Automatic annotation (TrEMBL), chains A, B:
This is L-fuconate dehydratase. The lineage of its organism: Bacteria, Bacillati, Actinomycetota, Actinomycetes, Propionibacteriales. Its cofactor is Mg(2+). It is an enzyme of class 4 (lyase). GO terms for molecular function: L-fuconate dehydratase activity; magnesium ion binding. It catalyses: L-fuconate = 2-dehydro-3-deoxy-L-fuconate + H2O. One of its GO terms (biological process) is amino acid catabolic process. It comes from the Bacteria. Pfam families: MR_MLE_C, MR_MLE_N. Keywords: Lyase, Magnesium, Metal-binding.
Length: 450, 450
């Protein structure tokens, strides 16, 4: 019988802090990193190549090794297991990992052990897609309502969404699936860009990148804010000048404010006609987000990239705390938990606009948004997935954005495989890039010491 | 100048699963464990002994090593630092650790990196107490209101509690401090016992231990519930029979229920006159706890041992979701975050009944409850700290319980130092105990293989 034969875990880090890519009010020196999980088997994919599964979670540098230790412990429980049994019960595999009581204690279902769970289960889902010869969005969209609900983690959600409601909700979308898939193939899934607005960029670079975004057809642009109100006004003015009155402008504070401060700051920027304020305060503060939303309306409130599990999303929705639900594919417990959140958001009528950027998040969120469109919410009205233009060159099946829309991936899997050469070069600390940089630093230190 | 010269991190695990100590509806095979942090200096304590600091966080087995990796990274940033500078700004030291943006990404302020932060800062507080020649509860209680507020982490709390309110609240308690300290010294701080009610114990053992608790003078007893309703009725009946109608009976479900299920189950046990239901559902579910509390009143709702940071406690209090606030000294970011929660709870008038048990938690919570009584809430009415009678023999200054009350610790520090021999024997996997057990397992496997 075909078996999962092995796992490798790589701590991969890219030196993005050198160019201020990814800089915001909370995170000034992010080195975009991934814990990269590879599952191997003793069998072949439908195309005859060796069947493997690749998954990752995203971190911003130090501590990536901590997540790697956790991922190894979780992934090793899969080694030696019957492949058909694993792929035939993806809900059960997830539940087995998430309910290991000793590991659960370290969260539960949050922080390092949930990031690592995401990496491992993302690899399992990639394996499932490759085994079926389908991209993951399509694998999921082709499931029956019962099958899709069976992979979803609905624990702790029944006061907001029962299994029966979830199935009924999915059944209502069965009819239009084919037409929506055709629409996706024709026009892609709408996205917005954050590439212009990092806080470490100069005003000139901001202006130039906003213009480039307009030229590339984007209708939504997002800026980082939250360090200096007067400078935020200048930056919003530059963006608004370039994009004109009709395109949408969003801002993102990356959790730097207390609740009352968030309200004051956002109100002071309201004149720039903002679509949403993202992460105005602690990602744990459901009631705080609800208070902010009430005070800054009609500016919307968006959060979720640090929403650590489905229970938090349930509450954001129950409390009327968010206008946009930003699930993250590296932080939630892979598609098992993401499907649960998509179902909740559909029930509450809140649009899902996944968080992306980082390493490999764009590659994954396109699958999430397409699944949402085809099988769950049935619409992309008011929805845009995030897109950030960096680090895609490290992936074997990078996402493709055309006319401000993600083009549906067609290759089997979750688009999560990295080039072996990228992994080899950027493994920390032993990859060629880091060894060389370490050698340079030693030389510099010696030179400085005279 | 005196300096922090080094740190050691030990992964210490006790084989508690062998005796079902610590078994509950979620955690059936806990091996009580600690990540144990030792800070060394090049100076001496007031009594002339080498000045060291000892701290820990508590886990239940596998994954203790993951927390140890994180603790090492955080603790190493303290090595080489000027001791007086560190001890003169304990708020700043905490804020420096908690705001390392790359490590923060892995939480933020939750899960593994927050457990490890607790272990490290607990060691720093122990060091501070030893340096001052005072037990930590007394070190904190002797601070001025401004000094105490300066060590507290009030970030994200200002919509519920401002710095000015916190200072005013503390000033109101200044006068009675001496009398309350005298009261503590005379009668101790009231506690309850969970030692009787682990789920893996037989009914006869439950009955015997309840009787022992009564004989020892306890007025409160807690049982684990949540696997089998009919058996829970039997267990509650046994406990009520033994303790009589006047003593308090609490139950603890360790997060196993969804919200509606919690309500039904607790209502079905209401006839046993329960004081509180603890952890009825996901520890993240503020709104769920609020719904349960409304439905099961007058039975109280208690939670907090998995309350991952002060923002969660703020919301539990704002939402009227809890009757008892169970802070945990291994999960919150040490006394810096605990003081913030004590201040919040005092403002909202909710009693703090700290979670304990595990490894070393009883040793720490006595300091927390005494600080709360002397300087913050000013009362122990309606409050009981948890006490579980195991593993105290591994500590050099174990907590002492007399007539169902914690006796105020008098030795300098946080009562967190373990015997070097305990650390040596139970270090995992290289300690003598685990080496021997591994050898036994190898022999057993060989024998079984014939």
């Amino acid at each position: 019988m075909p078996t999962i034969t092995g796992v490798t875990i790589d701590d991969v880090r890219f030196p993005t802090s050198l160019s201020a890519d990814g800089s915001d009010a909370m995170n000034k020196d992010a080195d975009y990193s991934a814990v990269y999980v590879t599952l191997t088997t003793d069998t072949a994919a439908p195309d005859g190549s060796p069947l493997t599964g690749h998954g990752l979670t995203f971190t911003i540098g130090r501590g990536n090794d901590i997540v790697a230790v956790a991922a190894r412990q979780q992934a090793e429980t899969l080694v030696g297991r019957d492949l058909e049994e694993v792929l035939g019960d993806l809900g059960g595999v997830y539940r087995g990992l998430v309910s290991d009581s000793q590991i659960r204690w370290l969260g539960p279902e949050k922080g390092v052990v949930h990031l690592s769970l995401a990496a491992v289960m993302n690899a399992v889902w990639d394996l499932a897609g490759r085994h079926a010869g389908k991209p993951v969005w399509r694998l999921l969209a082709d499931m029956t309502p019962e099958q899709l609900v069976d992979v979803a983690d609905l624990r702790y959600l029944s006061d907001a969404l029962t299994r029966e409601e979830a199935i009924a909700l999915l059944e209502r979308q069965q009819d239009g699936k084919a037409a929506r898939i055709a629409e996706l193939e024709a026009t892609g899934y709408p996205c917005y860009t954050t590439s212009a607005g990092w806080l470490g960029y100069s005003d000139e670079k901001l202006r130039r990148l906003c213009q480039e975004a307009v030229d590339e057809g984007y209708s939504h642009i997002k800026l980082k804010v939250g360090v200096d109100l007067e400078h935020d006004k200048v930056r919003c003015q530059i963006a608004r000048d370039v994009i004109g009155p009709d395109r949408k402008l969003m801002i993102d504070a990356n959790q730097v404010w207390d609740v009352d401060q968030a309200i004051e700051w956002v109100q002071a920027l309201a004149e720039f006609d903002l679509t949403w304020i993202e992460e105005p305060t602690s990602p744990d503060d459901v009631l705080g987000h609800a208070a902010i939303r009430k005070a800054v309306a009609p500016i919307g409130v968006a959060t979720g990239e640090h929403g650590h599990n489905r229970v938090m999303f349930k509450q954001f929705l129950q409390a009327g705390a968010i206008d946009y639900c930003q699930v993250d594919t590296g932080r939630l417990g892979s598609l098992n938990e993401i499907v649960a959140v998509l179902l909740l958001a559909a029930k509450f009528g809140v649009p899902v606009c996944p968080h992306a950027g980082g390493v490999g998040l764009c590659e994954m969120v396109q699958h999430v948004s397409m699944l949402d469109f085809v099988a769950i919410s049935g619409t992309h009205e008011g929805r845009v997935a995030e897109y950030v233009d960096h680090l895609h060159e490290h992936f074997t099946d990078p996402c493709i954005v055309k006319d401000a829309g993600y083009v549906p991936p067609t290759a089997p899997g979750y688009s999560t495989q990295m080039h072996p050469s990228s992994v080899a070069d950027y493994r920390f600390p032993e990859g060629a890039y880091w060894r060389e940089r370490h050698a340079d630093a030693v030389v510099a230190a010696r030179t400085a010491a005279g």
